[in-house]
Amino acid sequence: xxxxxxxxxxxxxxxxxxxxxxxxxxxxxxxxxxxxxxxxxxxxxxxxxxxxxxxxxxxxxxxxxxxxxxxxxxxxxxxxxxxxxxxxxxxxxxxxxxxxxxxxxxxxxxxxxxxxxxxxxxxxxxxxxxxxxxxxxxxxxxxxxxxxxxxxxxxxxxxxxxxxxxxxxxxxxxxxxxxxxxxxxxxxxxxxxxxxxxxxxxxxxxxxxxxxxxxxxxxxxxxxxxxxxxxxxxxxxxxxxxxxxxxxxxxxxxxxxxxxxxxxxxxxxxxxxxxxxxxxxxxxxxxxxxxxxxxxxxxxxxxxxxxxxxxxxxxxxxxxxxxxxxxxxxxxxxxxxxxxxxxxxxxxxxxxxxxxxxxxxxxxxxxxxxxxxxxxxxxxxxxxxxxxxxxxxxxxxxxxxxxxxxxxxxxxxxxxxxxxxxxxxxxxxxxxxxxxxxxxxxxxxxxxxxxxxxxxxxxxxxxxxxxxxxxxxxxxxxxxxxxxxxxxxxxxxxxxxxxxxxxxxxxxxxxxxxxxxxxxxxxxxxxxxxxxxxxxxxxxxxxxxxxxxxxxxxxxxxxxxxxxxxxxxxxxxxxxxxxxxxxxxxxxxxxxxxxxxxxxxxxxxxxxxxxxxxxxxxxxxxxxxxxxxxxxxxxxxxxxxxxxxxxxxxxxxxxxxxxxxxxxxxxxxxxxxxxxxxxxxxxxxxxxxxxxxxxxxxxxxxxxxxxxxxxxxxxxxxxxxxxxxxxxxxxxxxxxxxxxxxxxxxxxxxxxxxxx
Length: 756
Description:
Blueprint: H1 3-29, H2 43-96, E1 101-105, E2 111-114, H3 116-122, H4 126-129, H5 143-154, E3 159-166, E4 174-184, E5 190-199, H6 200-207, H7 214-222, E6 227-231, E7 237-240, H8 242-248, H9 252-262, H10 270-279, E8 285-291, E9 301-308, E10 319-325, H11 327-362, H12 368-371, H13 378-394, E11 399-404, E12 409-412, H14 414-419, H15 424-427, H16 439-455, E13 459-467, E14 470-482, E15 488-497, H17 499-556, H18 564-590, E16 599-602, H19 603-617, E17 623-629, E18 633-636, H20 638-654, E19 661-668, E20 672-678, H21 686-689, H22 711-721, E21 725-731, E22 735-743
Parallel strand pairs: 17-19
Antiparallel strand pairs: 1-2, 1-5, 3-4, 4-5, 6-7, 6-10, 8-9, 9-10, 11-12, 11-15, 13-14, 14-15, 16-18, 19-20, 20-22, 21-22
């Protein structure tokens, strides 16, 4: 029931009670007819009836008063609702135009809402992101980690500054940072997630200091002879120089209010269409000549240049605007055209006189009738001039079209006609729509033609046309042709083929990209050869040196013991073998020749034996303390697992001081197993951690400690091949903790019988 209906019902009920009260009062006042006993109402019921009706009337009056108060409360509630809606809209705008990317998703990371910055980072529109899963934008190699972190979020945990490699649609990947907060209902259940997305490269760029010449640059721009402004996505002026204000004759506040209307961006037409194409990225810039109608301005014609500012992913759209006064140029050009027209008219008159004189001289004097015959007519001279002009225009490789006010062709040169496989006469009377161009191109050309005809603008643009030679790229110019009264009577369009130019630019860009790729490959190969050579030379030299000492001691028969030399030779040989095995393994993984071959394995026994083996080969210089939680018997690839754990344990021993303890822990859970390896070594600097899983990269603090930088890359590839993930925590001077997590495929019902 609406408020109006409620008021009507209250008023109607009150009227009915008043009528009932009045009728009862009239009945009570009627004198009793003694001839009809029993018809009168006794005094006591009369009193009760009057009191009841009076009380009912008072109740309805109170109800009407309450309805009035309710109406006032409804009005206040409506005002509060409007205020809340305005506040919500304000926060919505703050959300949309925040410099960082913000998203709202369900617990499964499916997008429900995204702001402009997030959409730009992921190369989508905000509406296009709705319903899509964020995991689709995460680099393939990081998706398992993404799902693991997502499970933490679904348990109600928050995550700050989570580095993720993002792969936007159709763009290059970049390193980003997620900060995520779960949204919980009254029962503590996670019903949504709120994400902040930052491009780390852009953040660092913003934090870097500006060059000292910035203030000088701004001062020079303010004194420039041309008007310069910075616009937002609505065409509003954010900042401008003084010259622009002087050119348009208004101060900053007025300029901000009228600039979009002054540029005709608030109404349909070619100018608003071109500005929209700039915003959507269909064009990077455009230029046109524009006439400003204002009786108080000396400036009548300007050249407007707009360009989209290349922005970082989280930044809003900015546009640079340059306004150049070309009034004098236009006036000079108009005077030149007028002078040319006058010269052509004089020349035509002279030619006509010469032809008339020549024709009269060729005729012999005869009768008066012959003397009275006229020379060549003006129509004939015009026809000859038209043929000459057609010959000149048709010899050009450019296309020339002339259309009347209705958009129908009145002239097409022979070059354009051949491009469509038609005769020149076939074009006469036709329009753009009859050339079988695409609907988009036809609409744009028609809008531009009408604008040129009405406003006298000269428009330069580019398009692609389908001709007899296929799809070609053209640059075209539209210019208005005025009649003798100075009004627009036709439009001339010139098309210039720029296909080869564009192909040359594209080829040059591709060549530069290939050259850069080749240079990067050469640099990588040189670095690879240098590292491998060094890693082979050092242990080979050590082996040669130890073997020579053993030989010399044996020949000289001295008492120096040779006990440690064979062991040292074995260590260096193992180092060479490890390097070669790592290279072969990486080659197989890259070629997708390596497959997982799971077998039944008792992890407790496997890890214990591996720790004993490595401690024995390490000559007791380090102690490996192995512990386990739970019993793990399931399916794993023994070779890949051995390679993974051996590399991690050898790394821990290599970068820890002699005599220190390496903690090796196995944790078995229902659906996963975790291997924790903790050392007390030199630690890894923070700047090096993000590169550790790249080939041949080592920490900046390793000094003279031997190594090739392949160990962690091999570990990462082996872990990912088994469907797991690896995490690393480190502190310089304290040590490093590496955690490898693998899925636990135990299938107890399928386990083979173990005989005792």
